[in-house]
From TrEMBL:
GO terms for molecular function: ubiquitin protein ligase activity. SMART domains: HECTc. RCC repeats lie at residues 127-179, 180-231, 232-283, 285-340. Residues 658-906 form the HECT domain. Coiled coil: none annotated. The keyword rRNA-binding does not apply. The keyword rRNA processing does not apply. This is HECT domain-containing protein. GO terms for cellular component: cytoplasm. One of its GO terms (biological process) is protein ubiquitination.
């Protein structure tokens, strides 16, 4: 061991020489006023100094001793925290007389401890974080300033995080995740939290500027912080008063800044003292120092401050047979622990360093459990299983992507390799005893412990891992699935949205597994309700609610899997159990009474119904709406008398001036024509209405020539209530099972159901415009500049000051998004709102919201899927035969048309 600064080996009571060559390993820690060491045999000692650096206790250092062997120690300003071999934690306040270690934690196995001046952080094997001591600036991370607790308090906002390191400075604290996410809290008067300001934080706050920097180590000084990334780069921030940031200045830095002078030297370790910093480069076995040097803590033979990293002058007695294993800094002291060259890789070689990681599930652990399942005492194995599978942190740190890809964890990439999880659980499934115990622990301990407000994406990994466990469970799958579903919906809406985003990015096999689990469980419970008349509604609601979320995710993701994976055939059996349904049978509710309530509730989750069942439920609910209107008098029924010659005018007049009850079936009567409307007259009425509306002048709808579809006129001069009345007509058609086709694009039905239109929708409505926008997205940067575009569409600014914002490579996606938003939303906001209001009025059955946009479009406008071969077979020719050359040539050309072109041809 080598030491420099205000402490010497003589002060520690070790050897007189500058290098300690004893055979035992030595662990050293130093704070502002105390320095302590620990031998390999678990014995140690400490020495206390006053604020001026003078020794308070003369003679030999005072002994450190516990009834059990000391595994590690960490110093604060004047206190020492000891961790025993069993992971029990004690604190020794050196100012007290007598100095007796006080028990702090004995019900957890603590693997890491970090001390600030007057506060302490502890990390358990299960990934829990505890803090105690001074909380003057929120350094305990307990969300608010409260009296300084003497007993350890859990930092709940880090629950579920797979942490790899904790660190503490003067009055600030840090935590580092296994995938490089950095959280800081506490005092921030000089920017030592790296958050871009100088406001204290009372809870763990992500340092977003370090995202994707692949951080692997953090060290804190009194008011500055240093971080080391996987590539050996060092970033510092906070107080630069003494040059401790290494930026060749004394300026404070509010955000992490690269120490440029260390560029090119692959740093493998960092350590911060009170006002100085050390960096070790293993490839050259050299240490760099910078910052305050008043007590010689920089090791350069001087007592002056240093603003840039310079080499530490290591003792010449450090020959080629020994190298630096670990660097340590604390207070105004610096240490370098040395070891024989053999076996060193530049990281800590101390045996206890390997024990400082939280539990994770990997192949080695699983093989161990399987091999010991029938031989090792079951009680001991159960403890290991419980420790690992009761902790979300442990699972979230498992099955990470290899080759450091997990450091790229984002909202879109959870950093998981789910194939590893699948293989692991399949292997565990070979031992029923193991799998049953794991299932019990997950249900009884893990799921109830899941935190409602995960700190980041890494804490949500458990929600992606657990379905792989549910996949192999047999007897426990149903109960566990219900509990898991409840945990999903206990998440805050913000975090549930993040989870949905992660679901949408899942590879198809894993997404399909997730769907299958909840589909299977939902079907089983529904079958029990139908056949056994048992009440499982709570369980059904939880599982179908998840299934519905997955259905919506699947739709937004462009249908990763077929919709049929979500349909529950049990729904049809529910309806069939009520007896055959006859249209117009108003006593239907009495027939389906045993199942009506369940069916009504389940309509809130339309993803589980196929199209046929949705149509049937829509019809059933129409009758429910009508039968619920007990006070309706016959004179208020929905009867409409019109003249064919003035059909549209008469209809609009009727809607404006009468008060029809839209709950009643529509009955249309053409003047001077006989006949009773049994549905055919109404259908003819809507077919004529559609043609007349599209011929209105001035037009209510704008016709797009290249698609033959219509959209709301942005600046129409039509009657002020035209869109409202046309909305009523469309709603009436839907409610009365009539087809009316105004040639709307799918975008309208998306908007009706709350789905945002996309570039694909613009491509359907206006292919030429859409291609132009796609070209903007695809073009090289130079070409985009040449296009000379700004944020306007047809003279309208689509963002504030749009004329002054040129479209560039960096903002072109924003331009395209704003363009689409303008076409489908902003330019027609009033028109669409009126249409929607009228649509809801004309269709009082709100169950139309069960349909997907494509389904609603098909119901209202007719089947949009054409059987082209059937059309060819059934076509009749006048003056020609099917075998004629002209006919054959026609079909050859027709077959080469796209789907949309074929439809447009038929519309001409």
């Amino acid at each position: 061991m080598i030491c420099w600064g205000e402490t010497t080996l003589r002060d520690l009571g070790l050897e007189n020489s500058s290098i300690y060559d004893g055979t035992a390993e030595i662990t050293v820690s130093a704070g502002r006023r105390v320095v302590a060491f620990l031998r390999e045999n678990g014995k140690g000692a400490f020495r206390l100094q006053n604020e001026m650096g003078e020794k308070r206790n003369s003679g030999n250092p005072k002994r450190l001793a516990l009834k059990e062997k000391i595994q590690s120690l960490t110093c604060g300003a004047s206190h020492i925290v000891l961790v025993s071999e069993r992971g029990t934690v004690f604190q020794l306040n050196c100012d007290e007389t007598p100095s007796i270690p006080r028990l702090c934690i004995n019900d957890r196995q603590v693997i890491q401890v970090a001390c600030g001046d007057h506060h302490t952080i502890a990390l358990s094997k299960e990934g829990e974080v505890f803090t105690w001591g001074s909380n003057s600036n929120g350094q305990l991370g307990l969300e608010h300033v409260e009296p300084s607790p003497l007993t350890p308090q859990p930092v709940t906002l880090l629950s579920g995080m797979p942490l790899s390191q904790i660190s503490a400075g003067g009055d600030h604290s840090f935590a580092l995740s296994s995938s490089g996410a950095v959280f800081g809290w506490g005092k921030n008067n000089t920017g030592q939290l790296g958050l871009g300001d100088m406001r204290d934080r009372y809870f763990p706050t992500p340092v977003s500027s370090l995202n994707l920097k692949r951080t692997v180590s953090i060290s804190c000084g009194e008011e500055h912080t240093a971080i080391l990334n996987k590539g050996g780069l060092v970033f510092t921030f906070g107080s630069g008063r003494y040059g401790q940031l290494g930026h060749n200045s004394n300026r404070n830095e509010l955000r992490p800044r690269l120490v440029a002078e260390l560029w090119g030297s692959r740093v493998t370790q960092i350590a911060c003292g009170r006002h100085h910093t050390l960096a070790y480069v293993s490839s050259s076995n050299t240490i760099y120092s910078f910052g305050c040097g008043e007590q010689g803590q920089l090791g350069n033979g001087q007592t002056s401050n240093q603003n840039v990293p310079l080499l530490v002058q290591l003792s010449p007695e450090l020959d080629s047979d020994r190298r630096v294993a670990t660097i340590i800094a604390g207070g105004n002291k610096s240490f370098a622990m040395t070891s024989p060259v053999q076996g060193l890789d530049g990281s800590c070689s101390m045996p206890h360093c390997q024990e400082k990681k939280i539990c994770t599930v990997d192949e080695e652990l699983i093989n161990k459990w399987i091999s010991e399942c029938d031989s090792k005492p079951w009680k001991s194995l159960k403890r290991e299983i419980t420790k690992t599978f009761s902790s979300a942190s442990c699972l979230n740190g498992s099955f990470l992507q290899s080759h450091d890809k997990h450091y790229l964890t984002t909202m879109d990439n959870p950093g998981l390799d789910l194939s590893l999880a699948r293989l692991a659980f399949e292997k565990l499934a070979k031992k029923d005893r193991l799998l049953t115990q794991i299932g019990s622990v997950v249900q009884q301990r893990l799921i109830p412990s899941l935190w409602l407000f995960p700190a980041n994406v890494e804490a949500l990994r458990v929600y992606l891992i657990l379905p792989e466990l549910l996949r192999v469970l047999q007897t426990q799958q149903r109960e566990l699935s219900v509990a898991f579903a409840a945990a999903i919906f206990n998440l805050s809406s913000l975090h549930l949205n993040v989870l949905e985003g992660l679901w949408s990015k899942l590879p198809k096999p894993f997404f399909k597994t997730l769907v299958k689990i909840f589909h299977t469980v939902s079907t089983w419970y529904l079958n029990q309700m139908r056949t056994e008349y048992t009440d499982h509604w709570v369980s059904v609601e939880m599982t179908v609610k998840v299934l519905q979320k997955l259905y919506e995710v699947n739709y937004r993701a462009g249908r990763k899997i077929e919709d049929s994976n979500f349909y529950i055939s049990e729904m049809k059996l529910f309806i069939k159990s009520a007896g055959r349904i006859y249209p117009g049978n108003y006593k239907l509710l009495n027939k389906i009474a045993p199942f009506a309530e369940t069916l009504q509730r389940l309509t809130a989750y339309p993803g589980i119904f196929d199209m046929e069942t949705k149509n049937l439920l829509f019809k059933i609910n129409n009758w429910c709406v009508l039968l619920g209107d007990d006070h309706v008098q016959p004179v208020t029924k929905n009867d409409l008398h019109v003249n064919r010659r003035s059909l549209l005018t008469d209809t609009l007049h009727h809607l404006r001036n009468s008060q029809p009850n839209y709950r009643w079936p529509l009955k249309v009567k053409f003047e001077q024509e006989d006949g009773i409307d049994h549905g055919g007259v109404s259908q003819e009425f809507f077919a004529i209405i559609a043609r007349e509306v599209n011929c209105l002048d001035p037009r209510v709808f704008e016709l797009f020539e290249d698609s033959r579809l219509v959209w709301f006129t942005p600046e129409g001069h039509c009657d002020h209530d035209a869109f409202y009345l046309l909305g009523i007509l469309c709603g009436m058609a839907l409610y009365n099972f009539c087809v009316v086709n105004f040639h709307f694009p799918l975008a309208l039905f998306k908007k009706l159901l709350g789905f945002p239109p996309t570039l694909k929708d613009l491509k359907e409505l206006s292919p030429i415009e859409a291609r132009s926008l796609q070209d903007v997205l695809n073009e090289d940067e130079d070409v985009v500049e040449v296009l000379d575009l700004d944020f306007t569409v047809k003279g309208h600014e689509i963002v504030p000051c749009g004329r002054d914002i040129p479209v560039t490579k960096s903002n072109r996606q924003q331009y395209v998004d704003a363009y689409i938003d303008f076409v489908f939303n902003k330019s027609v906001r009033g028109q669409f709102e009126d249409f929607l209001k009228g649509f809801s009025k004309g269709c009082p059955n709100e169950k139309w919201r069960m349909f997907l946009p494509e389904e609603l479009m098909a119901v209202l406008t007719g089947n949009v899927d054409y059987e082209w071969e059937e059309l060819k077979k059934n076509t009749k020719y006048v003056g020609y035969k099917a075998t004629d050359a002209n006919i054959q040539n026609f079909w050859t050309v027709f077959d080469e048309l796209s789907e949309e072109q074929k439809k447009h041809f038929l519309c001409e």
